[in-house]
Sequence to fold (270 residues):
Amino acid sequence: MATDLALTSSQLVALQAQWPPPTVVDVRRAPAFERDPRIIPGAIRRLPEQVTRWSLELEPWRPVVVYCVHGHEVSQDAASTLSAAGFDATTLVDGIEEGWKAEGHAVVPFAPPTHWVTRARPKIDRIACPWLIRRFIDPEAVFHYVAPADVRSFAQAHGAIAYDVPDVDYTHVGERCSFDAFIARHELCDPALATLAAIVRAADTGVPEQAPAAGGLLAISLGLSAMLADDHVMLRWGLLTYDALYAWCRGSQGEQHGWHPETLRAAAGH
Fold:
């Protein structure tokens, strides 16, 4: 990949504020990473020699920014492989050392992914909550879907956190659903997220009339469930649904559509 296509650190910061944010991938070789296992906030950690394998896990609707130590061949080769696979992929100018850190941007300690478990055959809350975790809490989070009777034993055996089952921290309380519990416990203050929470709550608790978009979310969720037998495939494409819905909550609610043939003819010069 040509270096003139790479992003500066300031450009990456600006891109991370857009929606959907890019998938940022730390592809430093193992010895370099072990010398300083700190990463750019929100980044995931992957081995550069396994790019073909882990590229299958990436969400194709999100741009990808890969970085290494200095922004040279390690990240450039990974970005080239991702671009050849159809991703909108680029690199970080000067990498994490001469670029990101040198410009004073924050780094955070790498932490192993958190594991979460809930009931199988997700519909709304059990897709919305993983989306919230991946986008706002832990981009590396791993999710497990098991039989309802096995959720607690699986959590204990595998060090996972149970959610959307009775008598756990992340669950329904009164009229609030598990999505609300995550927002409250992690103090996620965001007007667009509050709007989305109202939609999720209305769709998940049987009162879609309480939020105008809830009926649409319910229909799409049930349709995806009918189409997709694999819960993790359902999760993958459910993430796109919530990315799109959150984008609407962030800035598209005022857009209206209608059919006005005279306006269209005038625009076409007829």
Summary: DSSP finds twelve helices and nine strands in the chain. The mean pLDDT is 95. The first helix runs from residue 9 to 16.
